[in-house]
From TrEMBL:
NCBIfam families: DegV (TIGR00762). Keywords: Lipid-binding. PANTHER family: DEGV DOMAIN-CONTAINING PROTEIN DR_1986-RELATED (PTHR33434), FATTY ACID-BINDING PROTEIN TM_1468 (PTHR33434:SF2). This is DegV family protein. Gene3D superfamilies: 3.30.1180.10, 3.40.50.10170. The keyword Ligase does not apply. Pfam families: DegV (PF02645). It comes from Candidatus Faecalibacterium intestinavium.
């Protein structure tokens, strides 16, 4: 049997993981008072954002321990199963490295590793593609090869509503955050070569939505042969303009709608929203 493993930065919550038949290893979030929660396990995203708004100091995020991976890999090996592990970008987290260390500790050779070179809703799309290929009876080697090709055509574009969270996390100078906030600047971010990069900026939320819509085509257009996702942090209202545009302007089928979880939401902040998709150049035998 093929087991598919991922981390909670994919924002696949337990109920969805059960439906997909995948295992999710949680990352950790540590509050300023030292309290630690497991991403996607101990608090719902909604509960977490309510607590985040009250924090004077931004919580920190950390990777799972190698021992968590070791236990999973050892159990899978004992059952005679193969594991395909799909993890958030190794440029953004040590989770991939922790998984490799776990496999070394377990002393197993039944594991294939895929660095998604992405995060969040885009990482989840690779997991969903892996599930689709597994359920179609593909071999582990075929699945991994397809994922390596698919990630070249995987895109994420998101709007950051409140710059103070990037500032608190040290990812944006304080002066820039203050000036941007005063001017109502909304940056759009993407992931390039595994790292966070600017995809554009706009003044005010209406401008941010328009800029995001333009990025969909600039990034190669949405390939509707595969799942695609629209995601929000605190309110479904954040993605409603996106859903309307996809439906009424592009005449596309409705995307999966999900909520961005604790780890990614810590850095993006409440009010962030985005879209992830495979472009029209991707061709995978399903």
């Amino acid at each position: 049997m093929i087991r598919i493993l991922t981390d909670s930065a994919s924002d696949i919550l337990p109920a969805e993981a059960e439906l997909l038949g995948v295992t999710v290893i949680p990352l950790n979030v540590t509050y300023e008072d030292g309290a630690v929660i497991r991403d996607g396990v101990d608090l719902t995203p909604g509960e977490y954002y309510a607590s985040l708004a009250k924090c004077r100091k931004l919580p920190t995020t950390s990777q799972p321990s190698p021992e968590l991976f070791e236990a999973f890999f050892r159990e899978a090996a004992d059952a005679g199963d193969t594991v395909i592990g799909i993890f958030l970008s190794s440029q953004l987290s040590g989770t991939n490295q922790a998984a490799h260390l776990g496999a070394d500790l377990a002393d197993v050779d039944n594991v294939y590793f895929v660095d998604s070179e992405n995060v969040c809703l885009a990482e989840a799309l690779l997991v969903r593609l892996a599930v689709r290929l597994r359920d179609a009876g593909k071999t582990p080697e075929t699945i991994v090869s397809a994922l390596e090709e698919a990630k070249k055509h995987l895109h994420l574009v998101a709007v950051i509503d409140d710059l103070k969270y990037l500032r608190k996390g040290g990812r944006l100078p304080a002066a820039v955050a203050v000036a941007g906030g005063m001017l109502g600047i909304k940056p759009l971010i993407t992931i390039k070569e595994g790292k966070v990069a600017m995809a554009g900026k706009a003044r005010g939320l209406p401008g941010a939505y328009v800029t995001l819509f333009k990025q969909l085509e600039a990034m190669g257009g949405v390939n509707t042969e595969f799942d695609y996702v629209a995601a929000y942090t605190t309110s479904h209202r954040e993605v409603e303009p996106i859903l309307n545009y996809l439906d009424h302007n592009l005449h596309l089928p409705k995307p999966i709608v999900s909520q961005i979880g604790c780890v990614i939401g810590t850095h993006a902040g409440p009010g962030a929203f985005g879209v992830a998709f495979f472009d029209r150049e991707l061709h995978v035998a399903l």
